[in-house]
Design goal:
GO terms for molecular function: transmembrane transporter activity. The protein is of the alpha/beta class and 136 residues long. Helices cover 34% and strands 15% of the residues. α3 links the parallel β4 and β5. The N and C termini lie far apart (112 Å).
């Protein structure tokens, strides 16, 4: 009975099917070590001094002034008719001088003259009012 200790000619052409798992294990160990090292850094807490709810002040809501422009170019300031342009100027200057300016809500009629509406808007802006809205 004889044994072939040498390489067989039939096995020389076949590829080696076994996978070398040593590099994979090395990579997994390196990743595991990196994970273990970085986890304590993520769990550190940061101490913050937060404001309590009792100290918060609600902002003061601005006053709303209604300016109605009728179809016949009549201007009503909070329901009171404005006699002329000088009276409108005085009312706008008084409101513009306030620290917390009111919101001017202009309510033009559908049939109101465009020149009157545009004039009131331009006048209010020129005299320093910044909070102006137009509503129907």
């Amino acid at each position: 009975m004889s044994m072939n200790i040498g390489l067989d000619s039939s096995t020389e052409d076949e590829p080696i099917v076994d996978i070398n798992t040593t590099p994979l294990i090395d990579v997994m160990l390196v990743l595991l070590i990196m994970l273990i090292v970085t986890i304590p850094l993520q769990t550190e807490s940061v101490q913050m001094a937060l404001a309590s709810g009792n100290q918060a002040q609600t902002p003061q809501q601005p006053e709303h002034i209604s300016v109605v422009i009728d179809f016949d170019s009549t201007i009503l300031w909070n329901g009171q008719p404005v006699a002329n342009e000088q009276a409108l100027t005085a009312l706008i200057q008084a409101e513009a001088a306030k620290g917390n300016q009111p919101v001017i809500e202009i309510h033009p009629d559908r049939l109101a003259n465009y020149t009157t509406v545009a004039g009131v808007l331009a006048h209010a802006q020129k005299l320093g009012l910044t909070k102006i809205t137009i509503r129907n």
